[in-house]
Design the sequence.
């Protein structure tokens, strides 16, 4: 017999105000925040990941931020393990773990308590698959994965070389598709409330455009240049993330700054659309409207009622 542990999850598309609201809720409910952003784990990548500066965190402890260098690998399985470790420690301090962010696959891995394979890495297999990618492109890996694990192939972008290699590696080592491991549930350790912030699409796109403008004004091109000077090359998975790949093209003279900004706004809108597709397909999510200039206090009260009704003892 085991006791479940509470976990509050605040998610939604990019630019919906999750970070600020999460901090307000943590202050109100004695919470500590676990970042659910796959890029905020990297040091030195601050502006492009919209990482909250220390002064904006208002003393609320934040976990899974600045834990890796940009050239270090990071997986969904590792994220899940670190979240559960952090949540146990937070509950042990008598506080409420609050996972805040918009990386849908990572959130789903925790909320669904996916079981991940224990298969260790095999350098020989990775090197062999890396050669395939070097000679034929990542799409060749995607085609290989489609034959043995079409479910994972549908989830993994055809240019995501790192995850394609890992999925093929797991299949080679275990004979079981990675998607089969993902479908197997864990031990039911979590009592979870998932809230997503909802903003009408036109307003969301305006928010995204304004956020990109703020990032440029805050020095995103300089941040990317500094990362490159530190030796973090453009082929790294982290440097291919949203905001960084567009600025790399500008810094290397492959586009103008105006064109890079235009592409970043367009790509961020597309990313938000994909996020919403993921979230809309999950019936467990409770949606809270934060658009149309709805007062912050009204939103806080609504989410507080949800938290108190589901996670906090009367």
Sequence:
């Amino acid at each position: 017999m085991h006791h479940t542990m509470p976990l509050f999850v605040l998610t939604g598309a990019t630019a919906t105000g999750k970070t600020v609201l999460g901090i307000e809720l943590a202050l109100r409910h004695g919470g500590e925040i676990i970042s659910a952003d796959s890029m905020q784990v990297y040091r030195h990548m601050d502006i492009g990941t919209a990482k909250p500066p220390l002064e904006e965190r208002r003393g609320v402890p934040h976990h899974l931020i600045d834990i890796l260098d940009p050239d270090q690998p990071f997986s969904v399985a590792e994220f899940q393990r670190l979240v559960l470790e952090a949540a146990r420690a937070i509950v042990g301090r008598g506080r409420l773990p609050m996972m805040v962010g918009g990386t849908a696959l990572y959130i789903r891995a925790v909320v669904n308590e996916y079981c991940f394979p224990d298969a260790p890495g095999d350098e020989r297999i990775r090197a062999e698959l890396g050669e395939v990618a070097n000679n034929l492109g990542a799409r060749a890996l995607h085609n290989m994965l489609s034959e043995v694990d079409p479910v994972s192939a549908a989830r993994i972008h055809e240019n995501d070389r790192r995850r394609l290699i890992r999925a093929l590696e797991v299949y080679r080592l275990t004979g079981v598709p990675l998607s089969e491991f993902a479908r197997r549930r864990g031990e039911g350790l979590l009592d979870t409330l998932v809230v997503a912030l909802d903003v009408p699409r036109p307003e969301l796109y305006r928010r995204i455009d304004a956020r990109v403008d703020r990032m440029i004004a805050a020095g995103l091109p300089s941040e990317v240049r500094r990362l490159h000077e530190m030796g973090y090359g453009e082929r790294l998975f982290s440097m291919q993330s949203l905001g960084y790949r567009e600025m790399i093209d500008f810094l290397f003279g492959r586009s103008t700054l105006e064109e890079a900004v235009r592409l970043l706004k367009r790509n961020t809108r597309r990313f938000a659309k994909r996020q919403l597709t993921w979230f809309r397909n999950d019936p467990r999510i409770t949606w809270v409207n934060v658009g149309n200039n709805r007062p912050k206090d009204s939103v806080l009260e609504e989410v507080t009622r949800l938290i108190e009704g589901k996670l906090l003892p009367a």
